[in-house]
Design a protein that fits this description.
single chain; alpha/beta; 5-stranded parallel sheet; 5 strands; 54% helix; 12% strand; globular; binds 2'-deoxycytidine-5'-monophosphate
Length: 206
């Protein structure tokens, strides 16, 4: 079963790429960040802190596919808390099975540890990144479009803090898999990124 693993930094364009590739290759797609966001959202709904390990584990145990469709998962606050719950080793362990089960049937997964931990045998590994100012700019536009009023400076600060947490946590930190193809999207359009990834994938498996 073919697996395409897409890892990368926040707002680098990996989600847009994942969806576009899934539609092009007619493969199932899983945005694994939504699992962590759904856990964070459940904790927020029950007024629990993302640092509350026991409640975070309980929330992770209950995650179902329908939870990934909750519109609030896109919000800035959920994103900040998601990176905090993602630092709990036990939460990651609970969410591992969901991701492995999905990958067993083949598909495209995007996240932070897909090529390194979840699917180390993926046929294709991509690592997507861009300069932090550009990523903050994209995220700022997205939040404004969602009617969230927040300054560019705050978005940049939150993004830098999230990068630091994602890259420095002890368990499954964001890092580039040894065989990953790196795409820097700083000066690329979404279409350029798709074409670049498609060429890489076609040269490897199709
Ligand atoms: O991709 P995203 O912004 O939706 O991810 C939300 C948070 O979840 C992010 O800060 C890091 C974490 N995450 C993770 O640790 N591992 C993954 N495979 C996906 C996301």
């Amino acid at each position: 079963m073919t697996v395409i693993a897409i890892d990368g930094t926040f707002a680098s364009g990996k989600g847009t790429l994942g969806k576009r590739l899934a539609s092009h290759y007619k493969m199932p797609y899983l945005d694994t960040g939504k699992l962590y966001r759904a856990v964070a959202y459940k904790l927020m709904e029950t007024k629990n802190s993302p640092e509350n390990l026991v409640e975070a584990i309980n929330a992770a145990k209950e995650i179902k596919p329908e939870d990934l469709k909750i519109p609030e998962l896109k919000s800035g606050n959920v994103a900040v808390n998601a990176s905090k719950v993602a630092a709990h080793v036990e939460v990651r362990k609970e969410l591992l099975k969901f991701q492995k089960d999905f990958a067993k049937k083949g598909g495209i997964l995007d996240g932070r540890d897909i090529g390194t931990v979840i699917c180390p045998d993926a046929e294709v590994k991509l690592f997507i990144d861009a300069k932090s100012e550009i990523r903050a700019h994209r995220r700022h536009l997205e939040l404004n479009a969602n009617q969230e009023s927040i300054s560019f400076e705050t978005v940049l600060k939150q993004l830098t803090e999230r990068d630091t947490r994602d890259m420095n946590r002890k368990n499954a930190p964001l890092k580039i898999a040894a065989t990953a193809h790196i795409i820097d999207t700083t000066d690329m359009t979404a279409n350029d990124v798709f074409e670049n990834a498609r060429e890489i994938i076609d040269s490897i498996i199709f």
